[in-house]
Amino acid sequence: MSIHKPVKKITTHVLIAMKRRLEKISMLTAYDYSMARILDAAGIDILLVGDSASNVMAGHETTLPITLDHMIYHAQSVVRAVDRAFVVVDLPFGSYQGNSKEALASTIRIMKESGAHAVKLEGGIEISESISRILSAGVPVMGHLGLTPQSIYKFGTYTVRAKEKAEADQLLKDVKLLEELGCFAIILEKIPASLAKRAAESVSIPVIGIGAGPDVDGQVLVTHDMLGITKDFQPRFLRRYLELFDDIKIATKQYINDVRSGDFPNENEQY
User: Could you list the mean pLDDT of each consecutive 10-residue stretch along the chain, which spans 271 residues?
Assistant: First the structure.
């Protein structure tokens, strides 16, 4: 039995090799130094500085309001914490759609100012020019197909995508296109598991799922959802590993009581 040596640093090359060896890739979101340090120490493969920061860090209803400056700030914080994980940063809404020169300019700012390792864009053939231009500058690109939250007002709902044949066929075409353009990996969000399996088998680059079943090359969740820091969001694909909202609330109430009663600080907690 061969024993895999721990990888010192995750790279695009390592991720593609993991797919080849049928090793599953683990991915979570991170937006700040403290959380990123914990996730990296635990051995996570990829950290996504997601535009989901708009929801979980800033309290917006959608991902649309977050700006490029905000994303760079979060990415800087995460990159400072990481020794091993591969850091991918979302290009926010309005920073790449319809203008490949702006897409490249946005990417260059992220890479230069944060030190991140790659960027992620939502969409297929409609953003192929932006992807090509970014790749021509030597920046790794992760694709994102299926439910693309930046297009929520076009879809009108967060329901499962690509259930109909026409949309499913287009998704499979876009998966192949993203590989041909040179993307190193693709996220598939909230699509039927059988379609995700076909997509993953059709390309040699890693396909990472969220709500896309088990037959892909890895999984991603929003860390705040996985740890139970958020309470309202409860889709079928989410497994909560902790209930931190409740635990932190209980601890905070205990602290308040200890302060009010004079129990904190005690003799050992003063100078």
Answer: 70 98 98 98 98 97 96 98 98 94 98 98 97 98 95 83 96 98 98 98 98 98 98 93 98 98 97 97
Query: What are the DSSP E strand ranges found in 104-155?
Result: 118-120, 141-146
Task: Give how many domains the chain has, as a whole number.
Answer: 2
Neighbouring-strand partners of residue 141: 119
Query: Catalytic site residue 189?
Result: yes
Number of C-alpha atoms within 13 angstroms, CB side, residue 146?
24
Identify the active-site residue in 113, 122, 164, 189: 189
Residue 143 shares a structural domain with residue 61: yes
pTM of the predicted protein model: 0.95
Instruction: Name the β-bridge partners of 145.
Output: 188
Structural domain harbouring 200: 12-240
**Cα–Cα distance between 211 and 174 in angstroms, integer?**
18
Report DSSP state, residue 137. Answer: T
Q: CA 168, 169, 174, 179 torsion: positive or negative? A: positive
Contacts of 88 (CB under 8 A, 6+ apart): 46, 47, 48, 49, 116, 117, 118, 119, 120, 142
Region of residue 260 (left: phi > 0; alpha: psi -120 to 50; beta: else)? alpha
Residues 45 and 126 in one domain: yes
Same domain, 92 and 219: yes
- Cα(161)–Cα(225) distance, rounded to whole angstroms? 21
Token pair in block for residue 92 = 């926010």
Rounded Cα distance between 263 and 151, Å, is: 52
Q: Which long-range contacts (CB under 8 A, 24 or more apart) does 57-63 make?
A: 57/31, 57/32, 62/149, 62/152, 63/92, 63/93, 63/149, 63/150, 63/152
